[in-house]
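Thread: Newbie trying to understand structure tokens

Hi all, I'm a second-year student working on a class project, and my supervisor (Dr. K.) asked me to get a predicted structure for one chain before our next meeting. I've only ever worked with sequences, so writing a 3D structure as a token string is new to me. If someone could post the tokens and maybe explain what I'm looking at, I'd be very grateful. Here's the chain:
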Amino acid sequence: MKISPSPVALPRRSAAPKAPTAAPVEPSPERVFSPSSKALGTVLAGFGALAGRLAVPTLATSFGAGIGSALGPAGTLVGGAAGLTVGLLTEFRNRKFEGVVPLGRVVGGMAGGFVGVTLGTVLDKLHIDITSERLRHETKGFSYRKLFKRLTDVSYTSHPTLTPQQIDCFKSKLQPGDIVITNHDKWLDLEIPEALLGIGGGWSHTAVYVGGGKVVEALWGDGVLKRPVDELLAENHHARILRPDYQPGQAEKAAAEANRHVGKGYDATFNLKDDSAFGCVELVYTTLTRAAPQLELKPHKLLGKTFLSHKVFNSSPDMEVIEDTGSSFIYNYLSKFS
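---
Reply by user tm_fold:
Sure, no problem. This is what the structure looks like when written as tokens:
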């Protein structure tokens, strides 16, 4: 009988050893600052950002003038003007102050934040606290990583817009002829010139409540229009209701006067002698002075020109505050860095 040979097992190729699995890379923990260090870091970041934004056009002007000086006085003037234009475009490209590259804001803000945190750390070791409870609360979100992102986004703010509950509360207290003043922190840099000149800061828009849940207001790009007060309040971070000290019948007259201008254009020149277009404050001022001429409303004078701001209404002894969420230019500004 033929016996088949037993199969010979061939040697198998040993599997290549597995490479050791690399441990997942943990992101480096972010440094945790004390409340006072966060507060001072935010404050000095704000100062640094503003200084940086102003420094860019200043340095660009100086550089341009220096280059142009080789061509004489005329070259110095032209070079300086060109440098100023480039600097302003870099930091403040449009009316919302969005720069092409807000380099000065970023560099100045980061430098200020570092100095503020260092100062806060030193004061902590000395057991010295120069911050207030509200300041610590407003700046609790500060960190280096977040600061850089917020410096590159001019529109950022940590403040929330008005809640539906706040809006309902405001609406329940409105009467025809009331003045609604609001503030949107998104473009707060626009208020800096007003604050520095002492004619504003903290509030940026005004409207007349005409009843039926509607306000009449003047908006850039849209002109004078009527829309639901809910929309106005919902898109803002702060609001206040002022009630003028009307005589009988004047509140209704004010609402009618405001309605009369719906459909007209927007005016950024504050020309009180021209009824064809209005800025937001100009519309409210014109409405009140015509409907209730006894109200004490004092415009500002700036370089010999009449200038209007919300302060005309907020500082009037003939205005009663009916409802107010509160608005502080300083804290609104700091909300952009924390």
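A couple of things are worth pointing out once you decode it. The CA atoms of residues 202 and 328 lie 5 Å apart. The mean pLDDT is 85. Feel free to ask follow-ups in this thread.
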